[in-house]
Design brief:
Blueprint lengths: L3 H25 L6 H19 L8 H16 L2 H19 L1
Pfam families: AzlD
Protein name: Amino acid transporter protein
Organism: Neisseria bacilliformis ATCC BAA-1200
Length: about 100
């Protein structure tokens, strides 16, 4: 059973995440982005992925290093969502075996 504190934290994260998406939508819905701004928006998901997986490259845990390599290989071949799912799944499964 999930605790009330954990449930409130998850609901808070959901609210903040959705609020940032709505703010971006309403701020940009009637605007045309310039070429430079469009490039920044296209690069943002990749930057987030790198920020998430970068700490694993300096890890001393083998399952985290393997998951980081899987993420890099998947990112070179797959779109963002399958890459993230594959990397998180690999880290979770290998974490169970190595821990």
């Amino acid at each position: 059973m999930i605790s009330w504190d954990a449930l409130l934290v998850v609901l808070g994260m959901l609210t903040v995440t959705y609020a940032t998406r709505l703010t971006g939508f309403f701020a940009l819905r009637n605007r045309t982005l310039g070429k430079r701004a469009a490039k920044v928006m296209d690069a943002a998901p990749g930057c987030v992925l790198v920020a998430v997986i970068a700490p694993y490259f300096v890890s001393d845990k083998p399952h985290e290093l393997i998951a980081a390599v899987v993420a890099v290989l998947a990112a070179s071949r797959l779109p963002m969502l399958p890459t993230v799912l594959l990397a998180v799944g690999t880290a979770g499964l290998l974490g169970q075996f190595f821990a």
